[in-house]
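Dear Dr. K.,

Following up on our conversation at the group meeting, I've run the structure prediction for Lysophospholipase L1-like esterase from Streptomyces pseudovenezuelae. I'm pasting the input sequence below exactly as I used it, so you can double-check it against your construct before we proceed with anything downstream. Let me know if the numbering doesn't match what you have in your notebook.
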Amino acid sequence: MTSTWIAAHRSAVIDPYEAFELFEARGFTDQTVRQSLRLAGGGEALRVRFSNRYGKEPLRIGGAHLAVRTRASRIDPTSDTPLRFAGAEDTTIPVGEELVSDPVELPVSAGEELTVTLYLPGDTGLSTYSAIPYDVGHAVPGDRLSAEVLEDAEELSTGHYLTGVDVLAPEGTRIAVAFGDSWIEGAATTPGTDNSFPAQLGRRLTRGWIVNQGISANRLLTDAVGDHLLSRVDRDVLAVPGVSHVLVHIGLNDLGLPGTLAYPEPATERPTAADLIAGLRMLAARLHAAGLTVVASTIGPYAGAVYPGYDSEAGQAARREVNSWLLGADHPFDGIVDAAAAVADPARPDRIRAEFDSGDGLHVNDAGAKAIAAAVDVTLLDL
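The predicted structure tokens came back this morning:
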């Protein structure tokens, strides 16, 4: 059977030099960084992807190892394998560039937890990073690449440099890319449980799988946290090997961030429903031009969000108008997921139901993510 490289894990990244710093940016000097991931699909071999997209200096990697994770920063030492780059165990990623490891002949399956450990010998400067990694990472001083456990490690709530894993899977394997904001990325779901809405939906599929390219606080039309969604299409969707379907949730932060205390844009810069609808039409057209099936989601409820200025009458009115359009006959998408209805309080539909609320009025918890996943007609993802 012929095999081909298919994405089995993805993590979209953010520029640490953005003016709006919602997540703490940081770098490393003479440190070992250990991060874990869970594969959405399996294959007979794998390769690992790294990024220095937003770095201002070349990123020297003094060594990189792959291992099976047991728990926290602990690995199975019998599985510890050096990654190589064009045959070498150390490498440098130029400013603005990506790097893919040499293939590792290691059969892997969906749901398997792996750990990637990097030794970063120099001063990295601020790192290209992910807002919500699969689980808490760990960092310790010096070269501890092969350590079974990183003792007295600093915990990392953000991900660094690690952007994906591809697996060598049967030709014809097709996957979906979940593309959007925190409701895609899984903010406020339990770290290390793979309980984001796309991950829980993926466990309902009978073939293929879903990789996650969400960025918490991302917007459709304007850069804020991460490049805006329309500018991410080529890199974070079209370049993903095996993609045939795209699952989109976006718009919350276009409506909520302008005017907040954290991001004090003038309220007049908040987009209108017409602006968002035009942007969504453009997004659908670009993805359809590439031959992809596109499933969009209604914008989730957020009335009562605890972040000052996020919830506004104008924003709520625009959300309702956009959602009505998405649920009507005039939208350009191949299917719609009514995420808003799946988690809304029936008595107050602009709010998240109490049992699905993470506690901030803006994000769903594990149970809320499960409710959204359960509301999806899986025939829309005919992988």
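Two things stood out to me. The first strand starts at residue 3 and ends at 10. The radius of gyration is 20 Å.

Best regards,
J.T.
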